[in-house]
Each structure stands twice: as C-alpha cells, then as structure tokens.
Amino acid sequence: MRVREPIQVYLSTEERAELDRVAQELGVSRSEALRRALLAIAGADAPLQDLRVAGHVTPASARGGPPPPRKPVAPLNELLSELAEDRSDR
How many structural domains does the chain have? Predict the structure, then answer.
C-alpha cells in the first residue's frame, strides 16, 4: 500500500482551468492528473540522470526566456540561388 501525503499547490485561474480540462479529458481526478504530469516530467529526464550524477553533464544554468538573437549568414534568395547552382549538375 502506498502512503500518500497531502500537498498544497497555488494555481492561477488559467492554470486551474487547464488542470480541470486535462483531468476531465483523461477521465481522472485533478490529483491523478498532477501525479501523471510529475511522472512524465521525471521520466523524460531519467536518461540524463546517470550522466548528471557521474558529473558528465550539468543542467542548463538558465531555463526559458527568449531565443538568442538571429544572426543570418546570407539573405534567403542568395542561399536559394547557391543551392540551385550546386544542384544544377544532378
């Protein structure tokens, strides 16, 4: 028998609505939806856990945020014309 303990989570109105929607879609309670989400997150990270423990990899220091700025190497039309030229002998 698994022993479970209560936990309190504060959600925004939007987060609560999303949790309710997911739980209803899965046909489970909100608690079970949260449990499944936790297991999915933990399971997705499992392959890296051994490497992290051994010190071969480290987690990213910053998560989220905007993507880095674009640094295009050439205009698209130039790239496409070079590609067409390279493929012309095929």
Answer: 1
Contact between 88 and 80 under an 8 Å Cβ cutoff? The reply is no
- pLDDT at position 38 is 86
Is 67 a member of any domain? no
> What per-residue confidence (pLDDT) applies to 12?
94
pTM: 0.48
Q: Is residue 75 part of a domain?
A: no
Q: Domain limits at 20?
A: 8-59
Residue 72 predicted with pLDDT over 90: no
For residue 10, report the phi and psi dihedrals to the nearest 5 degrees: -95, 125
79: in domain: no
